[in-house]
Design brief:
This protein is mainly α. The protein contains 9 helices and 4 strands; from the N terminus they run ααββαααββαααα. It has one domain. Helix content is about 40%, strand content about 5%. The N and C termini lie far apart (about 60 Å). The relative contact order is 0.10.
Length: about 325
């Protein structure tokens, strides 16, 4: 005897609800374990976090992590004891040799902390005593995608909550007119279409989906469908959302699916964003001195300078 389609549907909803509720419980447990060992006298002060992730750059050994010992073996083939049978990437699989290649740039120590910076970073070096550089990290992955995924989620395999989702989960937001977690991607000038970051990298994983990142686009409307279509004004949109909200509440009452609550709140957030996002992206009130501090690309949507200024405004 097979269960009816309605019973199968209810079973799926029950399992989904159980997993969603369990995810929230797991999130609380994980957060509790992180704070359990904290000293009682320490009071949390952070209210917001700006996380800048530069995907693609010269090697750290060419920027701020000199390896002077490599000069002794420059040009020699990479010893088997170093490689230890590690597989090759597609970019190097055709090479007959793997010569050791130390940096060709000069390094010097800067600041009272004596941080090492290469000659390519004279301006960054001025901030040596305001920076913390970690030189002890290591990973098993040798390709870009798992490395990027690791930086965003702490795991090489996709599916875990992103760092921004955890921050949104822990800090929440004091601004009711914008999402707690906003993502901006930048387009360079050399290869404008080259953007190696994917939407899954700011997903919420097993946390409730309201903690997922909301991306501000770098061309067109900052958020898809932010503008109302012709013939729809704010009052009409408000009426539509009110009626849709009532239908969703009825569905929530029959299924108990917590994601419906998320959907209701996200529709309301989108409505408020129709007013808040245009104000956010209006740079007309910024002073000339501020704009100059961010560089000549600050008025080009999608540029790194533009996104840094928006991050400050957020």
């Amino acid at each position: 005897m097979f269960p009816s389609p309605m019973l199968r549907l209810q079973d799926q909803l029950n399992r989904r609800t159980f997993l969603a509720n369990s995810a929230a419980g797991l999130g609380l447990a994980a957060l509790g374990s992180l704070t359990a060992n904290a000293a009682p006298s320490v009071t949390a002060k952070a209210k917001r976090v700006i996380y800048l992730f530069q995907s693609g750059a010269p090697s750290q050994m060419d920027l701020f992590d000199p390896k002077p010992g490599l000069e002794k073996v420059r040009g020699e083939d990479l010893p088997a004891s170093i490689r230890m049978g590690q597989r090759l990437t597609g970019m190097t699989a055709g090479q007959a040799k793997f010569p050791v290649a130390p940096s060709i740039f000069k390094f010097a120590k800067h600041g009272q902390s004596g941080q090492d910076f290469c000659e390519l970073l004279p301006n960054t070096a001025k901030w040596a005593d305001r920076m913390a550089i970690v030189r002890s990290m290591q990973t098993n992955a040798i390709n870009h995608d798992p490395a990027i995924t690791f930086f965003q989620t702490g795991q090489e395999i996709a599916g875990r909550p992103s760092i921004g989702s955890w921050l949104a989960y822990g800090l929440g937001s004091e601004n009711k007119d914008l999402p707690a977690y906003i993502v901006m991607t930048s387009q360079g000038s050399g290869r404008p279409a080259d953007q190696p970051l994917y939407d899954r990298l700011w997903g919420s994983g097993f946390l409730p989906t309201r903690h997922q990142g909301v991306k501000l686009r770098n061309q067109g409307d900052p958020v898809l469908y932010l503008s109302d279509p012709p013939g729809i004004d704010r009052s009409t949109r408000r009426e539509m959302l009110d009626e849709l909200g009532e239908l969703n509440k009825l569905k929530l009452g029959t299924s108990g699916d917590p994601e419906i609550s998320t959907r209701i709140s996200q529709y309301e957030m989108a409505f408020r964003m129709q007013a808040s996002v245009p104000e956010l992206t209006d740079l007309s009130k910024e002073t000339a001195k501020t704009l100059e501090a961010y560089g000549p690309d600050v008025k080009r949507p999608g540029s790194y300078a533009y996104n840094c200024l928006l991050a400050r405004r957020l």
